[in-house]
Amino acid sequence: MRAYKVFSVLALIAMLVAACTPAAAPTAAPTTPPQQTAPTTAPAAPATAPAASSGGTLKVAILAPLSGGQPTFGVSTRDGALLAIKQWNAKGGVLGMQIVTDVEDSQCLPDPAVNAANKVINQDKIHYIIGEVCSAASIPVSDIANAAKVIQMSPTSTNPLVTVDQNGQTKQYIFRACFIDPFQGKVGAKFAVDTLKAKTAFIMYNQSSDYVRGLAEAFEASFTQLGGKIVGKETYTNTDTDFSAILSKVSTASPDLVYLPDYYNIVNLVTKQAKQMGIAAPFMGGDGWDSADLDVAAADGGYYTNHYDPGDTRPEVQNFLKDYGAEYSGKVPDALAALAYDATNLLLTGIQNAGADDTTKVATALQNIKFDAVSGTITYDAQHDPIKSAVVIHVTGGKKEWVATIAP
Ligand code: PHE
Predict the structure, then answer these.
(1) What does the alpha-carbon distance between residue 147 and residue 350 come to, in Å, rounded to a whole number?
(2) What is the pLDDT of residue 61?
(3) Which pLDDT belongs to residue 50?
(4) Up-side HSE of residue 390: CA atoms within 13 Å toward CB?
(5) How far apart (Å, rounded) are the C-alpha atoms in residues 40 and 398?
(6) CB atoms within 10 A of CB 6
(7) CATH architecture label of 57-179+314-387
(8) How far is the CA of 197 from the centre of ligand 1 (A)?
(9) How far apart are CA 267 and CA 64, in angstroms?
(10) Given ligand 1 and candidates 77, 132, 138, 156, which is best to mutate, with the most ligand atoms within 8 Å of its CB?
């Protein structure tokens, strides 16, 4: 596992900003190593600072897949989170503390994510985790974080079992910035039936991915309920790269739609092979398609459900686009960047509202939050899931075009 350390650089910048800005809160000496907590003499804290012996900094870990099968997820997530933190630090930090980050490469996989979580919790004594991106990684991390009373805020993991356990019990310290897959699957099915007029669908999915399997099941339930018919359902595994056997069955079944709720790297392989085999039915998927590396030629004609539309005129969206572009040489943020930005702002607002670096108080503050995020206005239900709209994107002519916004 590779650890991307930005602790020292960020902290140094934070310290310098703090030293030069009159309004900046922390007064820890610029020479204080950021990893070191609790200086022996308390800094002259501003009025808003808690009594916490933080030494003027608050640590946040970011668990993101910077390597592995879906690296664009990690880069966007890291960049969205770091932008939010930079903005908070420029305004004086949270509760007067400058925020320092530890970015870990958790690869969208359970084992690296668990290792990263154990490291940041046990070794680095960090109380706040943003991440992971993928549900299969976030679910095991959530059990570790919750047991340690560490707040985990996943920007993007949509499987219900991130925030609730198998018995339906809500994990007190775990939250997310995104909607969940039962809703996302329903949105896809509704769009397929109402707008695409699909009467039949073929579902293909990775049975060993919590996210992919969960979303496939959610789509099937809703599509059937809306009167649609599933004319084929085939599974594959993590290591499959040749989908021709399944795609022959798709050809034979001749469905109105193929539902493929996997991540972009697999979508690229499947849709390319489908085009080569002359399959004309449109493919549809979920947020996992969202990547600068989605093969828009192979996936042309496809649709996917997602979290935000850069064309949305709400000021939250337009300001974010402007700031993100300015920070990252004109890049347009994808949904992962937007949700990481939202997740970070939610977490820091929760800490601010709690008034202390006390994760039990922060959990309560988050439970009661109302926050105007890029991806919509966020309030939490009893399962710590935000209730908000989804968008549908059409892959067409080399572009990803917004076609619908569907409310819960
Ligand atoms: N929702 C996916 C999961 O739970 C992660 C994801 C979100 C990927 C948004 C891309 C965009 O695994």
Answers:
(1) 20
(2) 98
(3) 36
(4) 26
(5) 59
(6) 16
(7) 3-Layer(aba) Sandwich (3.40)
(8) 26
(9) 21
(10) 156
C-alpha of residue 339 to centroid of ligand 1, in Å: 10
Q: Looking at residue 43, what is its pLDDT?
A: 35
Pocket test for ligand 1, best of 78, 108, 133 (most atoms within 8 A of CB): 133
Per run of 10 residues, the mean pLDDT along the chain (length 408 residues) is: 40 39 33 33 36 70 97 98 98 97 98 98 98 98 98 98 98 98 98 98 97 98 98 97 98 98 98 97 98 97 97 97 98 98 98 98 98 97 97 97 96
Which residues sit opposite 104 in a β-bridge? 3, 63
Which pTM does this prediction carry? 0.87
- The ligand 1 atom at the shortest distance from the C-alpha of residue 184 is 1
Residues with CB under 6 A from ligand 1: 73, 133-135, 156-159, 211, 287-288, 290, 335-336
* Residues in contact with 330: Cβ distance below 8 Å, sequence separation at least 6, in sequence order: none
Residue 16's pLDDT is: 39
CA–CA dist 169, 212 (Å, integer): 23
Numbered ranges of CATH 3.40.50.2300 in the chain: 57-179+314-387, 182-309+391-406
Looking at 1.20.120.530, 3.40.50.2300, 1.10.10.60, 3.30.460.10, the CATH number of the domain 182-309+391-406 comes to 3.40.50.2300
